[in-house]
Amino acid sequence: MKNVKPVSSDEKLLINLGTFKVCPTCILFIRGEGNYSNIFLKDGRKVLSCRTLKFFETLLQDYGFIRPSKSALVNPTYISSIDLKIAKVIKLNNDVNISISRRQVRPLSDFFSNKHALVGVS
């Protein structure tokens, strides 16, 4: 796969986004928009990619990224709280809310209850 380049023996990867490369741990979330994806980075930058969300989901599954809806892929490292009951949203550290589809409520609930890593569940 020519879009991924290993940089060290501890298997850190850089994703080639055309003009620059991004470490997966720097990605807050990815929002799919048709055949394009907007990648939101922790430093506040937003990068438009001509790849689909499905492509990034496959590429980033080893990093624990979760897909709460058809249009978003989230890095669980940056989740500050999750509301699975009323609002059905994931709130990130930068105060962005990502909606959770009704079909993903139970799988996400099971995932986080097994991980015991959920902060602010309501």
Descriptors:
LytTR_DNA-bd_dom, LytR-like, three-stranded antiparallel β-sheet, five-stranded antiparallel β-sheet, disordered C terminus, alpha+beta, disordered N terminus, LytTR family transcriptional regulator, globular, 122 residues
Q: State Rg.
A: 14 Å
Mean pLDDT across every amino acid position: 82
Number of strands: 11
Q: If helices are DSSP runs of H or I spanning 4 or more residues, what is the number of helices? A: 2
Main structural class: alpha+beta
Q: What order do the SSEs take from the amino end to the carboxyl end, as H and E?
A: EEEEEEHEEEEEH
What is the topology, as strand order, of the major beta sheet? 6-5-4-8-7
Proportion of residues in β-strands: 35-45%
Bulk shape: globular
CA-to-CA gap between the ends?
41 Å
Helix content: 10-25%
Low-confidence stretches: 1-11, 117-122
Describe the main β-sheet briefly: 5 strands, antiparallel
Q: Your description of this structure?
A:
- The chain starts with a strand and ends in a 7-residue tail after the last helix.
- A hairpin with a 2-residue loop joins β7 and β8 (72-74).
- The chain has helices at 53-60, 105-115, and strands at 4-6, 13-16, 21-22, 27-33, 36-41, 46-49, 66-69, 72-74, 79-83, 89-92, 97-99.
- Strands 6-5-4-8-7 form a 5-stranded antiparallel sheet, with helices on one face. It has a 3-stranded antiparallel sheet with strand order 1-2-3, with no helix packed on it.
- With 122 residues, the chain is an alpha+beta fold.
- The chain has 2 helices and 11 strands, in the order ββββββαβββββα.
- InterPro entries: LytR-like, LytTR_DNA-bd_dom.
- This is LytTR family transcriptional regulator.
- Residues 27-114 form the HTH LytTR-type domain.
